[in-house]
Every structure is written in C-alpha cells, then in structure tokens.
Design goal:
The structure is a single chain. By secondary structure, this protein is mainly beta. It folds into two domains: 88 residues, Sandwich (Immunoglobulin-like), CATH 2.60.40.1120; 459 residues, Maltoporin, Chain A. The protein has six helices and 32 strands. It has a 14-stranded antiparallel beta sheet. It has a five-stranded mixed beta sheet with strand order 10-15-16-13-14. A four-stranded antiparallel beta sheet has the order 3-2-5-6, with no helix packed on it. The chain is globular. The relative contact order is 0.11.
Length: 709
C-alpha cells in the first residue's frame, strides 16, 4: 500500500516544484531612476504596482528597485507637485522616468488661516497634500497619510501600540517647557491642544501607558486635504497657539450629481520585524556562574529555556470597513460615511476598535448669496491596552521581557503563570494575564457656518463649533500578581470630560483695481474649554470574583481614595486681521495681526500681540524670465513673524491653597485642618515670546520663530 502511494507523492512533489519554478520565473526585478525635468533625482518618489498596494520609495538620488509579479505589470510613478506617469515593464528590466511639474497645481487653492489662497500667491510657508498625494497605505490615524511626504515635518509614533500617540514636529522643536504639539483645525474648528485621553497609573511600578492619539476619532477616509502652516508669517494668524505650527484638516463634501455609493476595505498584517538580541539561557547561566561566581540556589537555575519575547509578541491582523454615500444638486449637497476599524497590536491582548460616523451638508439660498454648511462627527473608541511605557522599569512589560530569568517556566504545575516573591523580576505573561486596562472614548465634533455675500467684494462668515469628549480608563491589577499580593490587588478609574465651544465672526473684502489686487480680512473669536475629571484608586480587595473597578469599595475603604480632581475652565478671546496686496501678479505682500487674551495668564499679561509680515517676488513673471525654460515658477520669499505658546496649564498664575494636616486647629472642640500656600500669584505670567528673556517670575523660556526663504 505504501509503495503504491510513493509515485503519487513524487508526482505531487514535482508539480509543487514546477509551480515554484513558474512563479519564480514570472517574478522579475526592475531597477531605475526617477528624475525631474532638469535631470535631478527625486528622493522619496513613489513607485507602485498598478492595481495593488505594493510599491517602493526612491532613495536620495531617485534610484529604486522593485519586484513585480509578472511581465504584464504596470508601474505608476508619482511625486508631490509633479504629474504622475505609468510605464509597462514588459520586456525591460531597467526603467528611467522623468516627471514633469504639474503647472495646474500652481493655481490650486490652498487653505490658510481663516481663508483660502491661490498656491502661486502664497507668501508664507504652507504645504498642501490632497487625497491623491496621501500615502497609499492603510492609515489608522490621519497623520499617517502625510508621514514622510512633507519637507520640514517629522512624524514619529510613540510606540507600536494600537492608537498610540504621534509626535509631530514642524521645523523642529519650538520649546523645552511648554507643549510641542501643533494646533489642529478641523473644518474651521480648533481642537484643544491637550490630549483628551486619560493617562495611566505609574506609582510603585504598577504599569500603565501614556495617553493616546488625539486624532483617533477621525476616519482617514473622510479627509480630503491637509494644509500645514510652517513658518511664523503663516502661523501668526493663530497667535498664542501657533508656535508649533498649524495643521488644517479639510474633510470631504458631497458634489453635484447622482448619488454615489463608495465602499472600501483592507486587511493588514503586522509583526515584530526583529527581536532584540539577549543572552541565551546557556550564556545567562555562564555569566552568573563564571563572572558573578554564583552557585547552588543563588544561581537561580530552574531548568527551563524560555524566550520571553516569543511569549508576548504575536502577528496582529487588522481590518477596516468604509462606506460612504454622497451626492447633491446645484443648491445642496450631502455626504454621509461610516467606518469600522479593528486593529490588533503585535503584543498579546493589545487592540483597538473604532466606530466613526460623519455627516456633511451644504445648502445654498438667497440666489446663491448665502451658503450654509454643517458637519458632524461621532465616534467611539475602545482600546485594550498593555503595560508598556510605564514609569519605572519594573512596571514595563517590554523591559521585563528582556531581563526576566530565562530559566523560568512560563506556567507552573497548576497551569497558572509562574511567579516568585521577588518584585525585581516579573513574569511578562503574568503581567499580561492579570492586568486589565481598557479605555473607552466617546467624541462628538460638530460645526456649522453661514457665509453671506453682502456685496460682490464683501462677505461675512459666522462659524460655530463644538467638540465634546468623554473618556474613561479602567485599570485592574489582580492580587494574583505576587508583587501586589500584599496590597490584595489594585484598581484605578481615570476620567476626562472635555467641552470645547467656539464662535467666530469673519469679514472678507477682496477687489481688483487694474493691476492691483487687495484682500482684507478682519475677525473676532471666542473659545471656551471646560475640563473635568478625576483619578480614583483602590486596593486591599477581599475577592477576585468581581472586577475591582466595578467594586472599588469591596476592600479596605481607607485605601479607596480620589487622588486628583480637575474642574477647570479656559477662555480665549481674540481679534485678528490680515491684509494681502498683489501688484501685477509679481509683487506680493501679506501682513497679519492677532491680539489674544487668555485666562491662563497673569492679571497684568492677559493680552498679547502677534504680528507678521511677508514679502514675495515672482521672478518667473518678469519679462527677462518669460522666455527661459528652466523655471516654471520661481519665487523669492522673505517672512517674519511672532507666535506664542500657551500650553502651560490653567492655574499657573493663580493663588492656590491646600489643606495642611500638620497645622490642624481645634475650634469649638472640632478639629479644623489648616492651610498651606501651594502657589503664589504670578501677574506677569504670559506665553513664550522673544520680548522678555529674563522677566521674573515668568517660568517659561522665551522662544521666537522666524522664517526666511
């Protein structure tokens, strides 16, 4: 019977080898170079296989290498500011491509602060990416759409956790004391620059993780364009919040025509690319035996060989479902969308589930002189988190996976994770199994605007926005963790509720007088942010049958405590204006001024002025340059501006008292706690600026931002 099966097995093996050879024969490697019209290499040019998500990026000199599946493949070459080009690979293995500058993009309208401008008329440093220029990859968060695509903008993810925050630096760091995040403005609504996600525990190495991405609530498929204001002359229109740059996000709207139904989905797989190199079990024992001169019980040899990195890492599978319906007529348009994202992390138990719905409506009235727009985003995010990024090495899962005794078994004889009484070494599997960390965030962002064309050259816009966030993070660490057994487990509930309201009035005047074009904008803005939340912790639980966070009074009540409580209000009142002057489409001048008043600052420094001035000369429009073929658009820009940074908290300028247990007094036989001074008033506290570098008692370092290009 076995002999009869041998020919069949051999045939199957030969067929498999033949298929492998055929597959290998069909796949080919293509190399080449992507250059501009003047022959310079285009670093970062995208080379993609048409109809797939596979591709590569050209190196610093424009060179690329890519493997294509067969001879019928077509490569698509793209670069920001250039027209795309397609090239078939049939019969060739080397392809050199020259991309021409897209002259149409010079006339593109880009979003600037409180208005729009033709790209060719910009005097400040503004970069724009449209949907076609976004990274053609699955983007879980909006900043991933532009990562590596804009000069001067550096985006790095804090860690690999699903939904983790990103550090966005526009032209480098602007401060060493206050916040570094840029200001995000979504369809005209400025977001609060502080994260709305509750932080985690860190005391005594309990673990926890940092706050997550403030843009998690957005669906990347709803974004039409992102405009990034870089230099001070461009960002000064946002005054005290513009020091770190401004990111303007425009979402998709409906278009005139029949109803259009769109559906897209993707599936992605993520895995650890490379494990960190650590000592093998034998090497670890050799070091302890020969170098540390340890023997017997002190050697701590349990007889196993465990790779703890293998025990905590996995292959994460993520998927996204997107559906959108849009359409409209001459008078109105609509777009409604829904997104579901499930993202698994490469660490066991880590994941994120996100549901996002969005509605955009546009209505015209009064013979098209009035345009009303309304938009609404509602999202809910659930994050299952793991103890990474914790304060103190003993509370961090990854560090414990690198340093824990490799001779330990993963599980003991009862099937439970193996543990010892030592708090210095912790079984990473036990940390995962006995820790429950869940964050739920509900967010609603709504905006409405009315734009009335009063005269042919004069218009008025009313803009309203509200941003509501309710986030709660619940962390349970079981008493089964031996290093917490004395406390009989720990629990924490951390909440954060935020209400952000803004109202703006903007007047715009624009008129052409022969070779002169004059644009004037003036506006008023009022923004109020109410924030409240608390941090509750508990311990000494009598049972594991009920989740600790659902039973915080189930132990020693003396240990149940509210460690912090916040109930703050921030207000920002602003007056701003801008003048644009264009002479013969060659000489451009832009001047802006914003006056901000903030409740964060001292009584003597409530208001500050933030001016900017920029000049541009379009040399390519001069007569002596019109016959040359080297430059399609050559512009010389000179800009100066002053911006501020107000991310210092809400109570740094006020007089604060707190209870002092050491100064209790007896009044009418009743003990009354005394008070101590926590903070003295600081009437001169103001935002960072270059005016007063040694102005006590201001605790912020002076930073200025200027730009010359």
């Amino acid at each position: 019977m076995n002999n009869k099966r041998k020919p069949r097995k051999i045939a199957i093996l030969l067929l498999f080898c033949l298929l492998q050879v055929v597959a290998y024969a069909q796949e080919k490697t293509v190399t080449g170079r992507v250059t501009s019209a003047d022959g310079e290499g285009l670093p970062g040019a995208t080379v993609a296989i048409k109809g797939t998500t596979s591709g590569t990026i050209a190196d610093f000199d424009g060179n690329f290498t890519i493997k294509v599946p067969d001879e019928n493949a077509i490569l698509v070459f793209t670069y920001v500011g250039c027209t795309s080009k397609e090239q078939a690979v049939s019969g060739v293995s080397t392809i050199d491509v020259t991309l021409e500058e897209d002259l149409m993009k010079l006339e593109e309208v880009v979003v600037v602060g409180y208005g729009v401008s033709k790209k060719s008329d910009l005097t400040g440093s503004v970069s724009t990416l449209k949907e076609d220029d976004f990274n053609q990859i699955s983007a879980a968060t909006p900043e991933q759409l532009v990562q590596g695509r804009i000069a001067g903008v550096q985006i790095t993810q804090n860690n690999g956790e699903p939904g983790s925050g990103s550090q966005i630096r526009i032209r480098g760091a602007s401060t060493i004391r206050a916040g570094q995040q840029p200001l995000y403005v979504i369809d005209g609504v400025p977001l609060d620059m502080q994260t709305s996600s509750p932080g985690g525990v860190s005391a005594n190495g309990m673990g926890g993780a940092p706050a997550t991405n403030p843009l998690n609530f957005l669906n990347s498929n709803d974004i039409e364009a992102m405009d990034i204001l870089k230099d001070a002359s461009a960002t000064a229109i946002y005054g005290s919040r513009g020091a770190n740059g401004v990111v303007l996000i425009t979402t998709k709207k409906g278009k005139e025509g029949k109803a259009n139904l769109e559906y897209s989905t993707y599936l992605s797989i993520s895995k650890l690319p490379k494990k960190l190199d650590v000592l093998t079990t034998e090497e670890w024992l050799t070091v302890r035996r020969d170098t540390l001169d340890l023997t017997g019980d002190k050697l701590n040899d349990y007889g196993y060989s465990t790779d703890w990195q293998d025990e905590i890492f996995r292959t994460g599978i993520s998927n996204s479902q997107n559906i959108a319906l849009s359409g409209g007529s001459e008078k109105n348009s609509y777009r409604v969308s829904f997104n579901y994202l499930n993202q698994e992390g490469i660490i066991e138990k880590s994941s994120m589930d996100k549901y996002v719905g969005r509605l955009n409506l546009t209505q015209k009235a009064l013979k098209d002189r009035l345009t009303i727009e309304a938009n609404l985003t509602a999202s809910q995010t659930k994050e299952n988190r793991v103890p990474v990024g914790a304060t103190g090495y003993e509370g961090d899962l990854l560090l414990n996976a690198l340093k824990t005794n490799p001779t330990w078994p993963v599980y003991d004889s009862t099937g439970a994770p193996f543990q010892t009484t030592s708090a210095e070494e912790r079984n990473p599997v036990a940390m995962l199994e006995y820790t429950d960390d869940v964050t739920r965030t509900t967010r609603i962002l709504g905006g409405a605007s009315a734009n009335l064309k009063i005269l042919e050259s004069l218009s008025y816009k009313l803009n309203l926005g509200i941003d509501y966030t309710n986030a709660i993070r619940k962390i349970t660490q079981s008493q089964k963790l031996t290093y917490l057994s004395a406390d009989k487990g720990r629990a924490q509930i951390n909440t954060n509720e935020l209400q952000n309201f803004i109202i703006e009035h903007v007047l715009n005047f624009n008129k052409t007088f022969g070779v002169h074009n004059l644009g004037v904008m003036a506006g008023f803005s009022y923004q109020r942010i109410d924030r409240n939340g608390y941090d509750q912790r508990a311990g000494y639980f009598t049972t594991d049958a009920i989740n600790y966070v659902d039973n915080t009074d189930g132990g020693d009540l003396a240990y149940t405590e509210i460690t912090s409580y916040a109930n703050t209000t921030e207000e920002l009142q602003s007056f701003f204006g801008r003048i644009n002057y264009n002479l013969m489409d060659k000489y451009l001048v832009t001047a802006t001024l914003r006056r901000d008043g903030s409740s964060k600052f001292g009584t003597d420094s409530k208001y500050g002025n933030f001016p900017s001035l920029a000049f541009a000369w379009r040399i390519s429009q001069e007569e002596f340059m019109k016959n040359q073929k080297v430059f399609s658009n050559l512009k010389l820009r000179l800009g100066w501006g002053m911006t501020g940074n107000s991310e210092i908290g809400t109570d740094n300028s006020t007089f604060l008292l707190s209870e002092d247990d050491n100064s209790t007094a007896i009044i009418n036989h009743v003990p009354v706690p005394g008070f101590k001074i926590d903070k003295t008033p600081q009437p001169d506290l103001h935002w960072e600026n270059p005016q007063n570098p040694c102005h006590p008692p201001v605790l912020l370092f002076p930073i200025s931002k200027t730009d010359t290009s």
